[in-house]
Amino acid sequence: MKLFAISGSLRERSFNTALLRAVQGLLPGGIAVSLYGGLAELPHFNPDLDADPAPATVAGLRACIAEADGVLICSPEYAHGVPGSLKNALDWIVSTGEFTDKPVLLINASPSFMGASLAQENLAEILRVMGAKLPDAALFAVPGVSRKIGADGALEAETAQALKAALAAFVASI
Question: For 2-173, CATH number?
Answer without folding.
Answer: 3.40.50.360
